[in-house]
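Section 5: illustrative case.
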């Protein structure tokens, strides 16, 4: 991002917040696997603006309202998407609903699980922020979620920029990036103490690994001068996460050549970590650390009380026991 674009980008970010946030309708149920493949979301990823999440091409430097992909069930919260000029590279404006594929956030989906996974929130992300983009360009943000007014964050990792890491699974090293005044990454530290680059690189909590979920009050947040919301989180020393999500990146090294302008991220989150009853996801948001692009969605989920979950588990155990006993009956 160039400094002479800051004012324009700030205005566009405000537009993006209004355009990409859905009404807080019930989160749709879907059968999703956390494997970095978005086909179970109904999303097809293809290079050169051929993904099915894009209704039209948006030229570099122009703005357009973000599109929405209808969720599986009518009347439920839509998913936010916005795919732009895949070939824009890093030149020109790379703000919300614009080109700059290396920073382009293209799809953000939220779905609740089905059956015994009905308390699980699944998150799907498609973007152009790939690990092979080079050290100065690779700066992913973390996944932010605000539930009933309380802010949480999921560490999404990313590793040392410029590597060819193909995936970031649960428990991989977390990463905190240092950016210069133009939004370029100049330094990075991982949760094992490994660091690279320049600038003041703060230490990270060793527990801040990929998929770790934190209450924002447990650490500090980072946002650029032009951002309207924080993009990165660094847990304080001595703090522990409130739980774990499962997360996976799929980069160009593990996708077909026709998808190699993109990276896919998926995660699943146990919503009982945030309470029970009617939980309102005020905001679910993901963006690069430089906040060049952003998508967000909202929705509601009804989560049973813990006692109800225990009774449900006992019911399944009793049912399983009856099935086992029935197999032992002698054949007449």
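Designed sequence:
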């Amino acid at each position: 991002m160039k400094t002479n674009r800051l004012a324009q980008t700030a205005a566009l970010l405000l537009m993006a917040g209004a355009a990409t946030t859905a009404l807080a309708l019930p989160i749709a149920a879907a059968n999703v696997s956390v494997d970095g493949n978005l086909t179970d979301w109904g999303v097809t990823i293809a290079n050169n603006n051929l993904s099915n999440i894009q209704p039209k091409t948006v030229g570099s430097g122009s703005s357009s309202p973000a599109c929405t992909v209808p969720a599986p069930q009518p009347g439920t919260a839509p998913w936010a998407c916005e795919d732009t000029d895949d070939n824009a590279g890093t030149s020109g404006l790379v703000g919300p609903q614009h080109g700059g594929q290396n920073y382009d956030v293209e799809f953000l989906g939220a779905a609740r699980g089905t059956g015994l996974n009905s308390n699980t929130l699944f998150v799907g992300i498609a973007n152009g922020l790939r690990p092979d983009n080079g050290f100065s360009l690779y700066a992913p943000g973390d996944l932010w979620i605000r539930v009933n007014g309380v802010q949480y964050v999921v560490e999404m990792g990313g590793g040392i920029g410029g590597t060819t890491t193909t995936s970031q699974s649960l428990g991989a090293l977390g990463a905190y990036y240092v950016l210069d005044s133009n939004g370029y990454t100049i330094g990075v530290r991982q949760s094992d103490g490994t660091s690279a680059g320049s600038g003041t690189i703060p230490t990270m909590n060793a527990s801040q690994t990929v998929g770790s979920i934190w209450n924002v009050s447990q650490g500090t947040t980072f946002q650029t001068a032009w951002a309207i919301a924080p993009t990165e989180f660094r847990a304080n020393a001595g703090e522990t996460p409130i739980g774990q999500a499962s997360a996976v990146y799929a980069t160009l090294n593990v996708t077909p050549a026709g998808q190699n302008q993109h990276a896919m991220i998926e995660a699943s989150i146990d919503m009982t970590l945030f309470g029970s009853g009617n939980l309102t996801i005020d905001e679910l948001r993901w963006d690069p650390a430089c906040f060049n692009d952003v998508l967000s969605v909202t929705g509601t989920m009804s989560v049973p009380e813990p006692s109800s979950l225990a009774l449900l588990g006992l019911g399944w155990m009793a049912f399983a026991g009856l099935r086992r006993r029935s197999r032992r009956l002698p054949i007449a």
